[in-house]
Each structure stands twice: as structure tokens, then as C-alpha cells.
Design a protein that fits this description.
- By secondary structure, this protein is an alpha/beta fold.
- The protein folds into two domains: about 180 residues, FAD/NAD(P)-binding domain (3-Layer(bba) Sandwich); about 180 residues, FAD/NAD(P)-binding domain (3-Layer(bba) Sandwich), CATH 3.50.50.60.
- Helix content is about 30%, strand content about 20%.
- The strands form seven sheets. The chain has a five-stranded parallel β-sheet, covered by helices on one side. A five-stranded parallel β-sheet has the order 8-19-9-10-15, with helices on one face. Strands 1-22-5 form a three-stranded antiparallel β-sheet, with no helix packed on it.
- The N terminus and C terminus are likely disordered.
Length: about 400
């Protein structure tokens, strides 16, 4: 396993103190890393969690907007061994979810080592997730634009954009919600829709759309469920193409399973589009000093740009490994087989199935490591000479 990691400068490595850990190293203290740690704790296996930031769930705490809530019902988002508090709403807020994660860490005595990185390990659990770094698109003239440019990871509230014209690049869940937030704070958002996207109501007849789909998939083939969802969506949301948003030819669930593209769950954005408070615009051709030109030739003056262009895995930048992970930073094997590699390498939270997928991975990883760890521990007790499994982490 020593060759799996990009090592720091040789002299720098030995100038730092190294500790030897008789168990797995978990890289990342987000929900995926915490879930794995809790499952290992339940199995009685020692571990160390390393986090490059100085807090748990840094994505949630530092790179999300204020109005964010969980998009799915809480029962589909809870981590192993601890449900959400009963008094939490069906869709917990950002603050409530962070409180839940901090309670989770305390309950299972998870104390990450912050501002740290791993050098080599006997067992390595990659829990850095699908959203480790933001995607910055290349748009002609963006670097010369005189207005403010921020990625969605740095956007907190539309309050400071009051009265301004703002281009929102991206029409996923973040782009839709940021456009709505800007509108609610009396800004004038222009949402760029470059490709087709499925927009579904968050609830259908009082039931979570996700929960309804999950239930139907137990009895019906996927394509039938897709058709049923789209028919119900048409009755509830109407024809969204009149809003300038085209639907993909593949159904929402098929697209999610094949491409990992999550459908947008509408929480009021379409209504604002229909009444003209949010403008849908086509792809951008170029930016100039203070204006933007679209592919249809139209130009408008704008004050700011919010890049709701998503995130990606950063695994290829630090893990020297080519058999388990592909170049895009995801395991080569699709769900549910992408949690285990060779030589003690594991991945959690790369399923494109949200928190429920991360929980599934975490439980499998903990059971798999526990079998080997307990067997090796038993063998060590039978020997007179101590022999330690070693994980070396740079502190």
C-alpha cells in the first residue's frame, strides 16, 4: 500500500512526527467518514479519521448556502445507528443537519485529526466524497468581467445582491435554489439553462416524490415508474418547456441510474419563472466588461455571476492508484460493488445515491475490515513477539 499515495518531500516527511495506528485510516470527516467510523466503533475496531479542514462536514459548514435543506425526507438521510431527532422536520435545515452530525460524532466518540493528511496505510478508507472540489467552467471573457464572480460554494445569501442583475450558471438543484433565493431577496436572477433537465415536484399528493418512486420500484419496472412520475409531474407542474426548460428523452430514474444526473426537486422556482421574476436564458457565448452575450446573440448588462456548476471528486490528485478508481475519481465498479478495492483500499460515499448510499458502503466496509482485524488480533495474542499492523499518517 505504500505506493498508493503521493508522498510529500522526503525530508519534510521525516521532519514530522508519525504515529502508528493499529487499524484503518479514514480520509475525510464528512457524513461518509463519520458513518464508517461509527460502524467500525460498533465492531470494536480502532481507527483514525483524518480531515484536511479544521471541522467535521466542512462542505456543509462552509460551502453551502444559508437556505439549504435536505432534499429528501430525513429517514432516507440518517446515518447508521442513529436516527434524526423526532422533533426535526421532514426536511431538516442546514443547521439541523450539522447539529445532527456533531451529535453523531460525540455519540460514537469520533475525534478527527484536523488539518492532517495520510502518507501510507494498512487499510485506507477514502471518504472524501463526490463533492471535494468545485468545478470552475471555462467561459470566454469571464476573467475580464468587471462584476463579482462567485462559485456556489461561496454563496451564502441573496441579501447582498439586492437590486442587482445576477447570472446564475447552472440549473441543477443548487442553481434553481440560488435563483429562488436571489429572487426572494429582490435581485433579478437570470438562470442559464444549457441542456435538458428533469424537474419534479418535491412532493406528490403529500408524499415525497423520492419515497413514492422508491415504493413503486418494489413492484414495477423502472421505465413504468418513470412514465408514471412524469405524468403526475405534468399534472402538478404543467408543461415546463413553456418555462424554457426541456426534458431529457430518458426518464428521471433511468438518467440517474445511467448517468448519475439527479433530477431537480422544485420548491417554488418554477412559479417565479412563470411570473417573470426569474428569467431563463440560453447558453453563454462570452462575457465582456459589464455584460454577457448569449448563444442566441442577445446581450444584457449584469452586476454579478454565480457559478452553480457543481463539484467533483479530487481522489486522482492525491491517490496513486489506477485499478480501483477511474480518472474521474469514482470507483470503476458501479453501485453496489464500488466500496471495496484491493490491498485494503475502500471507498465510501461515491455511489451517486446520496447519504443512503454512503451508509450502505459504511456498513459493508466496517464488517469487511472487522473480519480481518479480529482474525489478525487473535493471531497476535497467540504469538510471544508483538507484531503491529501499521498505518502511518503525517501529523
Amino acid at each position: 500500500m505504500e505506493n498508493l499515495f503521493h508522498l510529500v518531500d522526503h525530508e519534510d516527511f521525516f521532519s514530522r512526527r508519525c504515529i502508528w495506528v493499529n487499524g484503518p485510516i479514514i480520509v475525510g470527516a464528512g457524513p461518509s467518514g463519520l458513518a464508517t467510523a461509527a460502524c467500525l466503533r460498533n465492531e470494536g475496531v480502532p481507527f483514525v479519521v483524518l480531515e484536511r479542514a479544521n471541522c467535521i462536514a466542512s462542505l456543509w459548514q462552509r460551502r453551502t448556502y444559508d437556505r439549504l435543506k435536505l432534499h429528501l425526507p430525513k429517514k432516507f438521510c440518517q446515518l447508521p445507528k442513529l436516527p434524526f431527532p423526532q422533533d426535526f422536520p421532514e426536511y431538516p435545515s442546514k443547521k439541523q443537519f450539522i447539529d445532527y452530525l456533531e451529535t453523531y460524532a460525540r455519540k460514537f466518540e469520533i475525534n478527527p485529526q484536523f488539518n492532517e493528511c495520510v502518507q501510507c496505510a494498512r487499510w485506507l478508507v477514502v471518504a472524501t466524497g463526490e463533492n471535494a472540489e468545485c468545478i470552475m467552467p471555462e467561459i470566454e471573457g469571464l476573467g475580464e468581467f468587471k462584476g463579482e464572480v462567485v462559485h456556489a460554494c461561496d454563496y451564502k445569501s441573496g441579501e447582498r445582491f439586492n437590486g442587482k442583475k445576477v447570472i446564475v450558471v447552472g440549473c441543477g438543484n443548487s442553481g434553481m435554489e440560488i435563483s429562488l433565493d436571489l429572487c426572494n431577496h429582490h435581485a433579478s436572477p437570470f438562470m442559464v439553462v444549457r441542456s435538458s433537465v428533469h424537474v419534479l415536484p418535491r412532493e406528490i399528493f403529500g408524499l415525497s416524490t423520492f419515497e413514492l418512486a422508491f415504493f413503486m420500484l418494489k413492484w414495477l419496472p423502472l421505465w413504468v415508474v418513470d412514465k408514471f412520475l412524469l405524468i403526475l409531474t405534468w399534472f402538478i407542474l404543467g408543461n415546463i418547456e413553456k418555462c424554457g426548460i426541456k426534458r431529457p428523452t430518458k426518464g428521471p430514474l433511468q438518467l440517474k441510474n445511467t448517468k448519475g444526473k439527479t433530477p431537480v426537486l422544485d420548491i417554488g422556482t418554477l412559479e417565479k419563472i412563470r411570473c417573470g421574476n426569474i428569467n431563463v436564458v440560453p447558453g453563454i457565448k462570452r462575457f465582456n466588461d459589464r455584460n454577457v452575450e448569449f448563444v442566441n446573440g442577445e446581450k444584457i448588462d449584469v452586476d454579478a455571476v454565480v457559478l452553480a456548476t457543481g463539484y467533483r471528486s479530487n481522489v486522482p490528485s492525491w491517490l496513486q492508484e489506477c485499478e480501483f478508481f477511474s480518472k474521474n475519481g469514482y470507483p470503476k465498479m458501479p453501485f453496489p460493488h464500488g466500496w471495496k478495492g484491493n490491498s485494503g483500499l475502500y471507498a465510501v460515499g461515491f455511489t451517486k445515491k446520496g447519504l443512503s448510499g454512503a451508509s450502505y458502503d459504511a456498513m459493508n466496509i466496517a464488517k469487511d475490515i472487522s473480519k480481518v482485524w479480529k482474525q489478525e488480533t487473535k493471531q497476535k495474542k497467540q504469538r510471544t513477539t508483538a507484531c503491529h499492523r501499521r498505518c502511518i499518517s503525517q501529523f
